[in-house]
Each structure stands twice: as C-alpha cells, then as structure tokens.
Amino acid sequence: TPSLRHLNLSHSSKYDSDIEDISPMNLNELIHLSIFSSDLDFDEFQFFLELIHSNLQILHVSFLKRDIRFLHAHRWQRLLLENFSQLEKFSLCYREPGYGDNYPIYDGELNQFVSPFWIQRNLIFDIEIWEYRIYYFVRPFKKRWYDYSIEHSKLAQLTIKYVYCNELPDILLNQIKRVLNFTQIYHLNIDQKISTESLMQIIHLLPDLISLKIIALFYYESILQFGDHEFPTTSALENASNIKYVCLEITFTMDDISFLMSFCPHMEYLNVECIENMNIQSFLREILNKINQNHHKYLHALCIYIATADDQMIKQLKQMIDDEKLFLDYTIYRQLYNIYLKWK
Question: Distance between alpha carbon 340 and the CA centroid of its chain, in Å?
Fold first, then answer.
C-alpha cells in the first residue's frame, strides 16, 4: 500500500515468512514503524529494514532473540544514518529470554550509546531486571526524581523491578554481573521492598553509583550473613560512599533514614516520605537533629513528601526551625505535596 503511513509488524516465528524472499518496498508515505520479533537475528532485521524505502520519522523496535549484535551501537548508528536520515524518534528494547549460562558473551566496548550521535538525539541506555529476564533499552531520556544535571555518559540506569526473594542472591547477582559486561551502572532503582543485606550485596557490585532509589527497607537480625555468602561489608560501604542522591519512597521508621545516612555518608540530597501518622514537625526535627549531631557536611538538600502539605505547614516548619535554631542559613518551600529544604 503506497499510501501507508503507520505500520505495526510482529514476527514471532521463523515460519512467518522467509525474509530473503521479500522484495524491496516503496513506502514513501510511511512515517511510523513499530516492529516486534522473537525470531529475527540482527542480520535478518537489517536486511529487512534496508528493503524499506521511506521517509520514516519514528521507529520503535523490540526483540526477543539471543543475538548480542542488537546491542552494538555502531551497527545501529550506521543502519539508521544510511537508511533513515529523516528519523526523529527511535527506541529499542532487547530482551534476553530466560536465564542461563549459555548466552553469548558481549565483548564490545562498554556502553557504546554515548557517542555524539546518541547524545544529539537525547537517547540513553537503560536496563531492567524482571524475574529471570533482562531488558535492555535505548530510549529518550526523561526527567528523573533528582533535579541535578548529570553528564550524558553517566545516565545509565539499572532498575530491578521484581525478583523472587527466596532466590536471592545468586540469580540476581549473576544477572547484574552480566549487565556490567555491557555498561557501567550509575543509577540504581529497586522497585520492591528490599532487605538492607540484599541492598549491600547489590551495591557491592556497583562501584560507580551516583543515585539510589528504593521502595522500602526491611531488616534481618544480622547483617553479617547473606545466604551462604559472607558480607563484603567494606567494599559495599566504599561503593555507597560515592552515592550523592538517595530516594526512599516509603519510610516506616526513623531507623530507615538513619541507615541511609550512615550507609551513604557523602549523600548530598535525600528524598523521603513522611512516616504515616507521624507529625511532620516531629519527623523533620528528628532528621535535622541527626544531621546536626552527626555532622553530615555533604547533605544540603532534603525533600519530604506528605499528602497534607500546604502553605500553612511551611510557615509552621519555618517557625520551628527558627525557634529551635536547627538551621540558620536555609530556604524552605513547597511544590504540590513535596516540601523542599535547602541549607548551606
């Protein structure tokens, strides 16, 4: 259909068609193409794409195939430049199917998606782990929870969305080690409740972290053992000392905040939720007292989420800080339900 403008293709079986038998297609009106395939390897995909003659503006591709070449940025760059010079939007999702030791080893450069080609298009490389599956994404960068400028080469983020708790640590840790064959990780999101032991074991593997975001913490009686593994406490603490931005979405006790302050001593920004049924003044007072007592010289910004935040609350908190001389040189303000406090 020469007038076709939007096309969604799904190729889920090697019996769907023989790529080599397809003739070149003149689709001059085609501007939006989405492709999902669980069978095509990169060479077959490239051959197919080169058959399409169009003025494509948007390309979204998703693959489930054991072919490491889908993560070769230089091949993607050449393919897009030579065939789709007018392309405005691009996204790639590559999913490794299942878990095992029989995957090909990636031996290319770390994170090739940081060249000027990708920077100019505001595209970044992200990874998500969900149960046994690892998803690799190339997609447009979107504003994150920390409001700080970070160079493009240090935006790679690992999100752990869901893992079976009774299968930690081996499977998850081996998945993270595999991810580290592709890229350094600078930002870690853990989208589930996690024990402090598990958190330390993960961070032991990630020496380049800048930010850490977790849903919630829980504690075991001992932090010296993790399954059958001795805890690498020293290296975990050394890596955590590089973390500048920390977010805890659900705060159960003040111990959660105390742990994070101790674990990430060079933290500059802390984003937390007010403890449910706890007075905001008491909550803030405890945090500021901890900061003053322990001389956290790097921490200079705090964000507290509270569903009842309003302008009157800001006035009351300012009055408390002034009366109790908790800080002298500071600013406090509200954006919707977030209370921001910054000091020198």
Answer: 23
Of all helices (H) and strands (E), which one includes residue 60? strand 58-64
Locus of tokens 């003739």: 23
Q: How confident is the model at residue 227 (pLDDT cuts 50, 70, 90)?
A: very low
CA distance 303 to 38: 43
10-37 per-position pLDDT tens digit: 876 655 556 666 667 788 889 999 999 8
Measured between alpha carbons, how far is 83 from 49 in angstroms, rounded to an integer? 8
- Please return the burial class of 231, using the count of CB atoms within 10 Å of its CB with bins 0-12, 13-18 and 19+: middle
- The first and second tokens of residue 9, run together, are 């293709």
Segment holding 214, helix H or strand E: strand 211-218
In angstroms, rounded to a whole number, what is the distance separating the alpha carbons of residues 252 and 230?
28
What is the secondary structure of 257-280 as a DSSP string?
A: HHHHHHH-TT--EEEEEPPTTS-H
**Which contiguous run of DSSP H or E holds residue 191?**
strand 187-195
* Cα 338 from chain centre: 22
* Cβ-contact 137, 128 below 8 angstroms: yes
Q: Residue 265 carries which side chain, given as an amino acid letter?
A: P
> What does the pLDDT look like over 89-123, one tens digit per residue?
999 999 986 665 566 666 667 788 989 999 999 99
- What gap in Å lies between CA 222 and CA 233, rounded to an integer? 12
